[in-house]
Amino acid sequence: MRKFGLIGFPLSHSFSQKYFTEKFEKERIQDCSYSNFSIKEIGELPAILSDPELRGLNVTIPHKRAVLDLLHRKDTVVEAIGACNCIKIENGLLLGYNTDVTGFEGSLVKKLADHHLQALVLGTGGASKAVEYVLEKRGIGYRMVTRQPREGKDDLRYEEVDATLLHAFTLVINTTPLGMYPKVEECPPLPYEALGAQHYLFDLVYNPAETMFLRKGRERGAVTENGYDMLAGQAEAAWDIWNA
Fold it and tell me: Is 145 inside a domain boundary?
């Protein structure tokens, strides 16, 4: 049996276990299993790794950065953004990858238009790193928006985002958990009345399928996309890595 799994905390609403379990059933893959490993501290990982049948792990919050010190090798994306969400276990070595970049870019471009030249990235946590990487790769200018601007960074506060700014920044990407189930009434504090058909709102949250952030954009004619396709894309990229 080849075993795979997800480490993070908490994992009560994990996408990965359901996705891979259904994938194995649909594709009649009988020699694989996928489990959740809910660990508060990265120091608990060695106990999980003691299983000789374990072949790969997905990594989610809060361990995407903490796991870096345990890796034997890192791919170029992990080195660039300082976050790992996929581990391949090969001959006792932990090889680190980041498939968030693949998943996000693959989903983003489906609705990206020529006029989406500047982006506002909401949040500066670990999830934002993959977003920044893709925007830089595609030559899309961006500003980070946060409640607590980082020292030495050109971050915007939410109260600085006005209609004039939104007129220029027509791509808005939410990397925060605001609006995630069960707190579905929450959304980033933006002047949503300034949105229009020229805007593209992308939310990394996938549960609910339409967050309040996306709903407010849709009601004003904006193009919207949730995080499901991104997660499916990163999951398939992880599967390819584990089986390479």
Answer: yes
